[in-house]
Amino acid sequence: MRTAHSITDTTTIKAGYRLLCSLFAAYDFPVFYRDDDPDPIDDFLQYSDEEMSENLITLAAIARASDDELGVLKNIESNFPKGVGQLTPEGEKSRPLTIREACNKIIHAKVVEYDLAWSEENPIWDQWFKARGYEVKNKYKTPALKLEGKHQQNDKKWVARVEIVPFILARSMWKVWIWKFA
Asked: Would you give the distance in Å from CA 72 to the centre of its chain?
């Protein structure tokens, strides 16, 4: 089936790569700061939010458009049985955030905050390790997005947490379902 626009894996892989590199680098930038202003690191970091936002919106928008046209996300969801984060609508319990919901929340968020978190569990292969009886622990960078917004139809507030590594994997590569993460 031909769509109106031609988007290849390369576009989303590059956007995912750039976003992941930007976020992983953000963990280490503070060690280069000095106490005095002006700081040369500031010259680099002035583009940081813009760069991350561009790549994040690119991934989310392409995912939504591709899913609307081709239904690609259904092939990917099985690799992420716990979703790619958590969604908490106002007055309700938290629940897993699907890949499509994450795209919607990223696109419509009114507040975006990056959380440079750490975990002992591998953000890519942990489910696979556990399914085979392995317990692999280390110190892993696990950046996340904290998003806030309002539902378009009912004006109800929501808060979402998107785990960036699984989101990027789910959105950056069309054939992610062949890797069997879960």
From this structure: 17
